[in-house]
Write a structure and sequence with these properties.
GO molecular function, one term: myosin II binding
Pfam families: LLGL, WD40
Radius of gyration: 34 Å
Helix content: under 10%
Distance between the termini: 32 Å
Number of helices: 6
Structural class: mainly beta
Strand content: 35-45%
Shape: elongated
Oligomer: single chain
Protein name: STB5L protein
Keywords: Exocytosis, Repeat, WD repeat
Domain Lethal giant larvae homologue: 231-339
């Protein structure tokens, strides 16, 4: 028996690099942990890992050749063969004396250009994957009269007009067009701001640079002395005619031409400094129109997808792939409002951190279509109507497929149902468990008895019965919600119960007897039907001491519940004598008997979710006592002395009397004092309570314990 990883779902962790093959239409993402994810049409998802674990600096496809070059932070280059089922490294090349900063592989070229931190450019033969020996030294590239080092190589690209001309961008603002045949510089351009990226016009007569002061400069090869156009797109224009104020660095720019319209200039960064709270943005300039797309996460990289792989043709851009730290977004450039494409990958698994998961195989065949139909009604609108542009690769389902469902619980209280029958995950349905509770006002956390400051609705445990469709969730704030599935919308109040679980360890440490008052009338001790409690010793609140209050407030007004999973019952543990309830550590449901059992370090509770009644609440000491509380004959209560059976049945009576020298053995017939030793904590509880209506009997024989 060997464990074998078959598939990896979710967003690549800590992404660093992006590449796209415009012919095969596949995308590659590199990460800080040395992983590479290759994505194509939905279902095409391949994972490979560098053995060194070094971060991926850059990725370059050998376009339409089924190969990929990766440059890693340990200054190694790797050539990956993608033509086999599991991609593998064909060749590796390690740089020992210089650090790699930038790579460029021209379309249909056999030469890979590698720039380094020292400012030198090396050339690698892509077929043999060895250094050619041709090195463009930094001191040869810049003017001999310039003594200062130009900084690392930040950009390399070949001229669209002539692949024998290489444009080299240095960090300090120097750009050199190098003639590879004559081994000399054709032109040199200098700018007094650091360069971050360079982009060519497809005719090869102009190029654009992005700079650290938020400016874009446009250069003409015929007059390289100064840029013929300088703009600061997000800079405020000064009244006295001075240069606009500088902005944040433009980290990357792409300059893409269209046959029938103005060119697109797309860049990341460059926002003004006075808007400190602005989110990371991608700016699209098309003619005189400037559109700023705000992102939810920092931008790692972006690529413009064009109709042609040839750099010397009109590019005709149709989409922009934006790689964020925690998301992948594709923007449609063909529509004026730039809508995004609906992402078919299960990228948003960690939209809110996953806190628990459950896996179910061989589900009833009607379940996936039913969940999909209710989930489809809640989908967001406003996506692009075009097909997902990353459509390469091929995959087959195989002969053996059966319904599989994965359920993920999240920190924000949401629960997602995923179809895992195929290799890819498809989201079926999303449930927000936090909707059963009142929204908490800011600054109210401590006052409302919260036990967790962050993520009070985080899902800790889930139980699902695919046959009965009963779904149960245990949350971090010591609550359990029972859900039923319905195809119809309802508008109803949410039923709630409160359970008191108390662990009296102090009583063992201090065995001094206390004076016990006469046992009061039992009916006066019972809580109201709304707050059924595991015990009845309500301590008066002194000052800020919290007692018998839950951590969260369940909505009391009628709630509109859409088709899908609808809350049937909320069970909450309450504070006891100023102590918060402990988090629930175990959960079990028996949908046939209508029972939910849950426990924590303080004890165990069993609730009948059909009758919405607490059946059992036992402290840990009682559960682990020397005698088994189940070893007794079941007795039915007498109708004459049945007092509020739903409230009182199977309650942990150790909470009535704290000292362990006295014990109460109870049934519905009598309440009798019994002397007992502190070690044997023996409790009698009734076994077969009847409901108030008396129409439904519930018997719990000894052999039923396992089902709970």
């Amino acid at each position: 028996f060997v464990l074998f990883q078959t598939v990896r779902h979710g967003f690549p962790y800590l992404p660093t690099a992006l590449a796209f093959d415009p012919v095969q239409k596949i995308l590659a993402i590199g990460t800080r942990t040395g992983a590479i994810r290759i994505l194509g049409r939905p279902g095409v998802d391949c994972y490979c890992q560098h053995e060194s674990g070094a971060a991926v600096l850059q990725l370059q496809f050998l376009i339409n050749e089924g190969a990929l070059v990766s440059a890693s932070a340990d200054d190694a280059l790797h050539l990956w063969n993608l033509r086999q089922k599991r991609p593998a490294i064909l060749h590796s090349l390690k740089f020992n004396r210089e650090r790699i900063t930038y790579c460029h592989l021209p379309f249909q070229s056999k030469w890979l250009y590698v720039g380094t931190e020292r400012g030198n450019t090396h050339i690698v033969n892509i077929e043999s994957f060895i250094l050619s020996g041709y090195v463009i030294m930094w001191n040869k590239a810049i003017e001999l009269s310039t003594k200062t080092h130009p900084g690392p190589v930040v950009h390399l690209s070949d001229s669209p007009r002539d692949e024998g001309k290489l444009l080299i961008g240095y960090e300090n603002g120097t750009v050199v067009l190098w003639d590879l045949r004559s081994k000399r510089a054709d032109l040199r351009a200098y700018y007094d701001e650091a360069i971050h990226s360079v982009a060519w016009h497809h005719e090869g007569k102009q190029f654009m640079c992005s700079h650290s002061d938020g400016s874009l400069t446009l250069w003409n090869l015929k007059s390289p002395n100064r840029p013929f156009q300088t703009t600061i797109p997000h800079g405020k224009i000064q009244r006295d005619g001075k240069k606009p104020e500088s902005c944040k660095p433009i980290l990357k720019v792409e300059y893409k031409t269209c046959k029938n319209s103005e060119p697109f200039v797309i860049f990341s960064g460059g926002l003004s400094y006075d808007k400190a709270c602005r989110r990371p943005s991608l700016t699209i300039m098309h003619g005189k129109a400037i559109t700023v797309l705000e992102m939810d996460h920092p931008i790692v990289d972006f690529l413009t997808l064009c109709e042609t792989p040839y750099p010397n043709e009109f590019q005709e851009p149709y989409a922009v792939v934006v790689l964020l730290e925690k998301d992948l977004i594709v923007v449609d450039l063909t529509q004026s409002n730039f809508p995004i494409f609906e992402n078919p990958y299960p990228i948003d698994i960690h939209e809110s951190p996953v806190t628990c998961t459950e896996y179910f195989a061989d589900c009833p065949p009607d379940l996936i279509p039913v969940l999909y139909s209710v989930g489809a009604k809640h989908k967001k609108q406003g996506y692009s109507n075009k097909e997902w542009p990353i459509s390469g690769g091929a995959w087959n389902l195989g002969a053996q497929t059966y319904p599989e469902i994965i359920i993920t619980g999240h920190a924000d209280g949401s629960v997602k149902f995923w179809d895992a029958s195929a290799i890819t995950l498809q989201m079926l349905y999303k449930l927000k468990t936090s909707k059963v509770f009142e929204k908490q006002k800011l600054g109210e956390g401590k006052a409302t008895a919260e036990i967790v400051e962050e993520d009070p609705f985080a899902v800790q445990m889930m139980y699902w019965c695919p046959e009965s469709r009963i779904f149960c969730v245990a949350g971090v704030s010591a609550y359990v919600v029972v859900y039923r599935f319905s195809k119809h919308e309802v508008n109803t109040e949410i039923a709630s119960l409160e359970v008191r679980l108390q662990y009296e360890v102090e009583d063992i440490i201090t065995p001094e007897p206390e004076i016990i008052p006469p046992f009061p009338d039992a009916s006066s001790q019972l809580p109201s039907l709304k707050s059924l409690s595991g015990s009845t010793n309500t301590v008066a609140c002194e000052g800020t001491m919290k007692d018998s209050i839950p951590c969260l407030s369940v909505k009391t007004r009628p709630v509109r519940m859409p088709p899908g999973y609808q809350a049937d019952l909320v069970i909450q543990l309450v504070w006891v004598d100023g102590e918060p309830p402990q988090q629930i550590t175990s959960l079990a449901v028996n949908s046939a008997y209508g029972l939910v059992a849950f426990g924590n370090c303080n004890g165990l509770a069993v609730v009948d979710f059909m009758q919405k009644t607490v059946l059992l609440s036992m402290g840990t000491l009682d559960l682990y006592g020397s005698s088994d509380p189940y070893q007794r004959q079941p007795r039915s209560p007498r109708k004459s002395k049945q007092f509020a059976a739903d409230n009182f049945c199977m309650r942990g009576l150790s909470n009535f009397y704290p000292d362990l020298t006295k014990r109460i053995r109870t049934s519905y017939q009598s309440l009798t004092e019994l002397s007992d030793s502190p070690v044997s904590l023996e409790l009698e509880r009734c076994k077969s309570p009847t409901s108030v209506k008396g129409s439904r009997k519930l018997s719990l024989p000894t052999d039923l314990k396992t089902d709970l």
